Structures are given as structure tokens and as C-alpha cells.
């Protein structure tokens, strides 16, 4: 008996476009982000979900809502453990601005050797995201689950499931509304079935107002 988990990153946001560190800070989906989420929904047509879980940040919630508009699925459950990394003093600030003011610290951050001032540690985000997924798997054993989260949160989650060292936490690239498929055996054994599948948004253009 295996449990499948479809991990989804939220759609494009204004924070993405502006290059901001929007960890726990709110930022809206762009029109393209909404279109990406709906394209994801079309991609998932015919998939029966036993549980749907999302970060409680609005960009993740709205992505899930738009993706599930035309699908039959159980009510979405919000889980703060699926939030993006908390960036402390860097919250909502442009990366270019931080990089100019603190180039060495930012370099160390991307090498996983330092965290943002007053921000969340790598061990913490890896622990909370994997705990959230394992709890969902435990609730829906033998079923199929959707999890909507964020780019760095998904990277941290995968690094922990794959038992990668802390310095390898940012070893992935996770596109907006991409699908990453996980499988868990009855004993809890983890298998990565697919990663960063974003075929459903290739060539997708910004909607015309």
C-alpha cells in the first residue's frame, strides 16, 4: 500500500517578478500566476485527491483554489508548516538591494552557511515541511494527496527527505506551479517519482486584459 503526494509550488507572484524575499510576507498572484494555476488544474484532470493541504499564505491558497476549480476534491486544509522560509530582516525586501548592502552574507546564505538576520534556520524549515507531509501521508494512507507550498520550502523538504547535508539544501530549482511527485510505502519509505514537472505551463502567455 503506497501513498502518493503531488507537491505544487504556487503560481507566479508580484514578489517573484520584483525579486523580493517574500517568505511569510503576503504577495498576490499575477494574472499569469492565475493562468498557471488553472493550467495545472487541467493537467490534473482525472486525478482523485483524498486530501488537499496548503500553506496558509494567500499565494498558495489561491493557487490551490484555482487549480481545483474544475476538479472534485475535498476541502483544502491550511497548514502553517508548509509556509515559505521566514527571512527575518530580509522579509519583503528586493534581493538586489540586500545583495548590494550585504554581498558576503547573501553569498553565505545561498551556500547554506548563514541565515538571514533574525530569520529561520535551515534545520527548522526542513523539519517542519517534512513533518507536515508525513502527517498528511499518515492521515491518507494508500491515497493521493496534494500539497501546495513554496519554492525554498519545497527545496528544503526534498533535501530532508533525501537526507542531503544542510549545505545541499538549495540544490534544486522549483518552477511556479510545477509538480513534484512523491511516494511513501506502508513502512514510510520515501521515493521521489518526479521533480519540477512544469510541462503544463510551457508557452503559457500573460493573459490579455
Explained architecture:
This protein is 34% helix and 16% strand. The protein is of the alpha/beta class and 209 residues long. The protein has a single domain (3-87, 121-201), classed as Phosphoglycerate mutase-like (Rossmann fold). Helix 4 (95-101) packs across helix 5 (103-110) and helix 6 crosses helix 7 (151-161). The termini are far apart. It is built from seven helices and six strands; from the N terminus they run βααβαβαααβαββ.
Write a concise keyword list for the protein shown above:
single chain; 209 residues; alpha/beta; Rossmann fold; 6-stranded mixed beta sheet
Named at the architecture level, the CATH assignment is: 3-Layer(aba) Sandwich
**What proportion of the residues form beta strands (DSSP E)?**
15-25%
CATH fold label: Rossmann fold
Low-confidence stretches: none
Main sheet summary? 6 strands, mixed
Average pLDDT, all residues: 96
Helix content: 25-40%
CATH domain class: Alpha Beta
Separation of the first and last Cα atoms: 47 Å
Compute the number of strand runs: 6
Amino acid at each position: 500500500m503506497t501513498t502518493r503526494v503531488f507537491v505544487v509550488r504556487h503560481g507566479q507572484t508580484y514578489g517573484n517578478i520584483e525579486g523580493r524575499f517574500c517568505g511569510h510576507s503576503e504577495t498576490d498572484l499575477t494574472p499569469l500566476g492565475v493562468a498557471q494555476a488553472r493550467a495545472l488544474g487541467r493537467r490534473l484532470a482525472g486525478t482523485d485527491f483524498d486530501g488537499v493541504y496548503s500553506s496558509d499564505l494567500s499565494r498558495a491558497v489561491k493557487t490551490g483554489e484555482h487549480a481545483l476549480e474544475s476538479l472534485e476534491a475535498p476541502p483544502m486544509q491550511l497548514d502553517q508548516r508548509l509556509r515559505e522560509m521566514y527571512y527575518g530582516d530580509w522579509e519583503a525586501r528586493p534581493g538586489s538591494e540586500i545583495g548590494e548592502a550585504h554581498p558576503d552574507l547573501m553569498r553565505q546564505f545561498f551556500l547554506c552557511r548563514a541565515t538571514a538576520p533574525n530569520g529561520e534556520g535551515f534545520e527548522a524549515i526542513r523539519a517542519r515541511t517534512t513533518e507536515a507531509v508525513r502527517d498528511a501521508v499518515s492521515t491518507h494512507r494508500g491515497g493521493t494527496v496534494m500539497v501546495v507550498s513554496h519554492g525554498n520550502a519545497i527545496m528544503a523538504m526534498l533535501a530532508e527527505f533525501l537526507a542531503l547535508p544542510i549545505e545541499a539544501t538549495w540544490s534544486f530549482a522549483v518552477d511556479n506551479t510545477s509538480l513534484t511527485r512523491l511516494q511513501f510505502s506502508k513502512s514510510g519509505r520515501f521515493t521521489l517519482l518526479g521533480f519540477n514537472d512544469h510541462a503544463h505551463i510551457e508557452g503559457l502567455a500573460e493573459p490579455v486584459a
